[in-house]
């Protein structure tokens, strides 16, 4: 029963994040950590993203259970939990692998950010589309995820 409750919570979270009308209200507070999973055996290709989080409201990377999830058509295609600090310790970098198939080419990728300390889930407004074998961002020039 708990599994179905978690699934229902994740579905409601998705609906709430998508349906928020105000720019200031595009987040949801959760009672449980999202249970995002990716079955990489279902996919033939991937793309890579090196990113940072550009947000004053979220502190992604400070807690062990902070995470970023990549979704195509509502299905989780990539998860990153642990950031890597740059040599100068000025920013945290997230290395995200997004899985897909040939029919996912040019599909919109939604990025959800979960801040464990606030139990807060936000949808990034950063535009990203799936491209097989594409690399987006780098250590010296990471993609900035805006929320």
Automatic annotation (TrEMBL):
This is Lipocalin-like domain-containing protein. The keyword Signal applies. Keywords: Signal. Residues 1-25 form the signal peptide.
């Amino acid at each position: 029963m708990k599994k179905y409750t978690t699934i229902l919570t994740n579905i409601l979270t998705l609906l709430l994040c998508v349906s928020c009308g105000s720019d200031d209200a595009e987040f949801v507070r959760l009672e449980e950590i999202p249970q995002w999973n990716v079955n990489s055996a279902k996919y033939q290709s991937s793309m890579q993203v090196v990113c940072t989080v550009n947000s004053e409201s979220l502190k992604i990377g400070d807690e062990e259970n902070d995470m970023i999830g990549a979704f195509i058509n509502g299905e989780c295609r990539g998860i990153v939990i642990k950031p890597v600090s740059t040599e100068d310790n000025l920013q945290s970098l997230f290395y995200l692998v997004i899985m897909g198939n040939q029919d996912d080419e040019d599909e919109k990728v939604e990025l959800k950010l979960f801040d464990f300390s606030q139990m807060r889930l936000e949808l990034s407004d950063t535009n990203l589309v799936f491209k097989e074998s594409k690399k987006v961002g780098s250590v010296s020039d990471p993609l900035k995820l805006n929320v």
